[in-house]
Amino acid sequence: MTTKIIELGPHQLALEEPMYFRVQLDGDRVADLDVLPGQVHRGMEHLVMRRNFYQNITLLERLCSLCSNSHPSTFCAAVEEVAGIAIPERAEYLRAVADEIKRIASHLFCCAVQANVIGETALFRRVMEVREIMQRAKEAIYGNRMDLAANVIGGVRYDLSAEGAAFLARQMEAMKQPLDELYLQYGNNPALLVRMAGVGVLPREAALEYAVVGPVARGCGIDYDVRKKSPYCAYDRLEFEVAVQEAGDVRARNLVRLAEARQSVSLIEQCLKGLPRGPVCADTLPEIPAGEAIAKSEAPRGELMYYLRTDGSDMPVRLKWRVPSYMNWDALKVMLKGEPVANIPLIVNSIDPCIACTDR
Amino acid sequence: MSDCIKLTNDDPGKNPLSLRERVAAGRVRALPRSEELVTADALTPALSRGERVPEGEVRDGILTGFITKVAAAMTCAAGEETVIEWRRDRKGVLTGWCWLPCGESLLPAARAVAELKGRLAMVTAYLPERGKEKGEREIAYHFDLDGATLTLTVILPLQWARVPSLTPIFRNCDWQERELMELYDVQVVGHPDPRRLFLDHSLPHAPFERLVPYSTFTNAATGKALWDKVLAGEREDA
Amino acid sequence: MHIQAEGTAIKPVRLFRINTGSCNGCDVELAVTSAVTEFDVEQLNCRYTESAHEADIVLVTGPLTVRAREEVLRLYAETPREKVTVAVGVCPVSGGVFRGSYAVDGPLERYLPVDVNIPGCPPRPQALLAGIREALEIRHARHEGGEPKRAPGDRKQSDTDNFPARGRLSFDAGACVDCRMCRHVCAAGAIRFEEGENGVRLTLWHNSCVFCGLCSYYCPTGALSVTGDWRLDHPAAHTFRQVERGEVPYAPCAGCGEPIIPAAPQLLHDAFRRPNPDIERLKSLCPACRQQMSIGVPRR
Ligand code: SF4
Ligand code: SF4
């Protein structure tokens, strides 16, 4: 068999963002893979040390637009931990609402892109149209379709009026039927089954060895969700089941995402129902003492971790974060091994890779 | 087991104070402000004060057992000098902060974490406050232990810092270490693939060592040039 | 006539995208303009192409990272000479929040000529369409050998719609107490204060602003506010004129005669239904103390 090495870029990989792969082929099958990141490296971990805590809220929201809310909310949680601030209960719920809205939109985008990759254009457009319900909700409540600007140190900077809550509840109602329908489609539609079932398999043991996170891990039967394992915000008071699938293939990852999106609808409804009265933010501007803290959250792509170190000034001594995508690239070696070249774009997109997050 | 023996020979001449004393005196780092600061010796009373522990005492019992187990494993692997503290936040989430006595204790400690089924979550290198004066830097290895986070911190010299690669133990340490090597002046010994990862080849090595002065190596002048044009345009209009 | 009309219908204008290291916000919104009927670029007789050679309009996103530069310039060199180049989002124009990083090499204009800017972070799809329309006008004018139809610089009215998108910031100098909290919290370095002869001047550059509204949130008097005006697309020649500004005049201090910034009490009470002790205190403080009061911690 002939071995050869090909380079693939964003165009061949059907990615929105620039990322390059060096793929080693055995005949027409993938043998090995080298991921070449860095195109979107903006030196953000360096920038955050040159900006004060307030500026970093907005800067971190621009890390990645798909999980843009997870970054400021987790960063704020780390600052609050160092400062010993307990955010108001209402803010805990409102942070969860913002995170879940973003989760639905993010998961749908991932599923849409995959439909596009396999040439199911009608389905692609359908999923994007369903996602628009969320986009409109975001814009109406937060003023932007991607970057919500929901978080501040000490709580949130938006509130839901009775009207706003009713509007959001209506949007959630409108999501239910389409999400249920999409779950069935991605689970059973023969055209999708042919392309997605049994493709890009990551066995459970490999998933553990490569230490993947998020829907990629849960698609391999690993029952891990930060919202359950290390509760934060309002998640210790909300009911939900961790979505798990066993097969470890492309289909399983998508079913995890769609199940989670549907669950997010329920989480938002629970938040709206249980929304406690009171302030949405601690009312004094906090002083941030010297200290260090770790904060974690379940971003759409999985476990997100922040480490903050402060020295009593208004800028971090160090702010380090690890995004979920960072943990999942390496496992592509297992998923792609032995797969035909034609399957590369689909499998790559099935881990919902975020390059802006990875490169920082 | 041989690791345990090797690790106890911390160089006493170099650090006249014990690690515990250094941590307590705030010379290693500022003590974190916390909900509950729990030391491995006095676990039970501190933990039972926790709020919102769903399964009540049963859970406390498990927690105490867990903390004792982890503390014992770390001390066995990294030596008696090892300092470990636990914090529990309002939701009951545990974070453990473990200071290793020396660089050599990193490998055995990491192996012990692997045996506890820990998952490497993140590696943070940093220049601590007053690190320059003391000639020290630190690297923190954060592990997930089924929802709890355990951080192993090693203190290294500012110059010629070296750490063993943990990639042979935790495969996902690969990128973390490649990134660390390009951003800081730290050598990772035994890394299987020490190429640059994110940094373009045209950029100087180890930008994170150079926090100040910043403008000497970045295009910080861009902002000024742009603003000059904005303000000039404005004067024209006015 | 008939043939001509058919001709344009068959040959759509080709849009080509280049990502120079963006947060993907602008790119995801551009994807919407090819997937969602309401925002589809087909309504402008445009279509996306994957081939640089076919580009009639080049849409560039991101702050131009050092690492991406080579590939970006290679792709750009492959595009036809007579294309129109559009900077999408504030990143390519000013670097946005990423300006000043060692890894960022923008603004884009340093390397290639830009024709149209679409401020936003990210711009909503309606704004993207408006910007593309502007690029089409330029393209049309170039083909005809004339000027774009719309007189440059005229203020366009935003379409009225139900969604109060976070748009252009507006500044009311009369309510400003010069505490400079807005500048302090602005991640994008979009706000400048200059001390002049007669007062203190605030300049907010819309091509650097990322429309987060944090300045307005922390402004103690409501001098800065977020408007719903999102129609900010403009020819690149006007890049540096996209500003909001105002001068807060000095008045002699009643005590020592030093020129100070007075804090108009009526305005403060207008802005806050109940008198607020913080505001009352701000009134009696000199600017240095006001900065201290708002910002608190010493700056490093
Ligand atoms: S302008 Fe804003 S949304 Fe667009 S790429 Fe830049 S940071 Fe992202
Ligand atoms: S809205 Fe205000 S704080 Fe945010 S970027 Fe614009 S000027 Fe800066």
Summarize the structure.
The complex is a heterotrimer of chains A (360), B (238) and C (300). By secondary structure, chain A is of the alpha+beta class. Chain A is built from 16 helices and 8 strands.
Could you explain the architecture of this structure?
The complex is a heterotrimer of chains A (360), B (238) and C (300). In chain A, 50% of the residues lie in helices and 14% in strands. Chain A is built from 16 helices and eight strands. Chain A has a three-stranded antiparallel beta sheet with strand order 1-2-3. By secondary structure, chain B is of the alpha/beta class. Chain B is built from eight helices and eight strands; from the N terminus they run H-H-E-H-H-E-E-H-E-H-E-E-E-H-E-H. In chain B, the strands form two sheets. A six-stranded mixed beta sheet of chain B has the order 1-2-3-6-5-4. In chain B, strands 7-8 form a two-stranded parallel sheet. Chain C is built from ten helices and 13 strands. In chain C, the strands form four sheets. In chain C, strands 2-1-3-4-5-10 form a six-stranded mixed beta sheet, with helices on both faces. In chain C, strands 7-8-11 form a three-stranded antiparallel beta sheet, with no helix packed on it. Chain C is elongated, with a radius of gyration of 23 Å. Chain C starts with a helix and ends in a 5-residue tail after the last helix. Chains in contact: A-B, A-C, B-C. At the A-C interface, helix 2, helix 3, helix 6 and helix 16 of A face helix 2, helix 3 and helix 7 of C. The site of one iron/sulfur cluster (SF4) has 13 residues of chain C, from helix 2.
Residue share in β-strands of chain A: 5-15%
**Mean of residue pLDDT of chain B?**
72
Q: Structural class, from secondary structure content of chain A? A: alpha+beta
Q: How many strands in all of chain B?
A: 8
Q: Quote the distance from N terminus to C terminus of chain A.
A: 39 Å
If you consult CATH, what is the topology of chain A? Cytochrome-c3 Hydrogenase, chain B
Low-confidence stretches of chain B: 1-16, 25-58, 213-218
What is the averaged pLDDT score of chain A? 90
Strand order of the largest sheet of chain A: 1-2-3
Shape of chain B: globular
Give the terminus-to-terminus CA distance of chain B.
78 Å
CATH topology of chain B: Beta Polymerase, domain 2
Rg of chain A (C-alpha, Å): 20 Å
Order of helices and strands of chain B: HHEHHEEHEHEEEHEH
Number of H/I helices of chain B: 8
